[in-house]
Automatic annotation (TrEMBL):
Keyword Transcription: no
Subcellular location: Cell projection, Cilium
Stated name of the protein: IF140/IFT172/WDR19 TPR domain-containing protein
IF140/IFT172/WDR19 TPR domain span: 1-137
Length: 137
């Protein structure tokens, strides 16, 4: 309580944000980052997403990884053990990089139809030609 008041009076919002995170007061940490500590906003979202993932709440972690702009790497890593949920996530997103990555993964497993579908949505025409040539289409 005193530390919180001192940090607020000194306008050390970066330390106040860290203090809230260490106390597990994530909503206060996010509010502080959004209002006063914008430079650490993405880092705060990332830390919160990691916390949620550690708690087993992957559904809530995903939007926070997206807000931290680390979802292209972190969500596939987090969902690697659940391919159905990962495919559902990739299908819902409009991110061409993730679509291309999933297409490459599907191609490596031999699922050429799904690979073609995701290469098309990623607009990766070079890979589409390569897969069509491989499939003799």
């Amino acid at each position: 309580e005193d530390a919180e008041r001192l940090l607020r009076n000194c306008k050390r919002y970066d330390l106040l944000n860290e203090f809230y995170q260490n106390q597990g007061q994530w909503q206060k940490a996010l509010e502080t980052a959004e209002m006063y500590d914008r430079i650490h906003l993405r880092t705060t979202f990332y830390s919160y997403a990691r916390h949620l993932e550690e708690q087993g709440d992957t559904t809530a972690a995903i939007p926070n990884y997206e807000k931290s702009e680390t979802h292209k790497f972190e969500v596939p890593r987090m969902l690697a053990d659940d391919p159905e949920q990962l495919e559902e996530y990739v299908s819902r997103t409009t991110d061409k990089t993730l679509h291309r990555w999933w297409a490459q993964y599907m191609e490596s497993t031999g699922d050429m139809e799904t690979a073609i579908q995701f290469y098309e949505t990623a607009q990766d025409f070079f890979s589409l030609v390569r897969v069509y040539c491989y499939c003799s289409n």
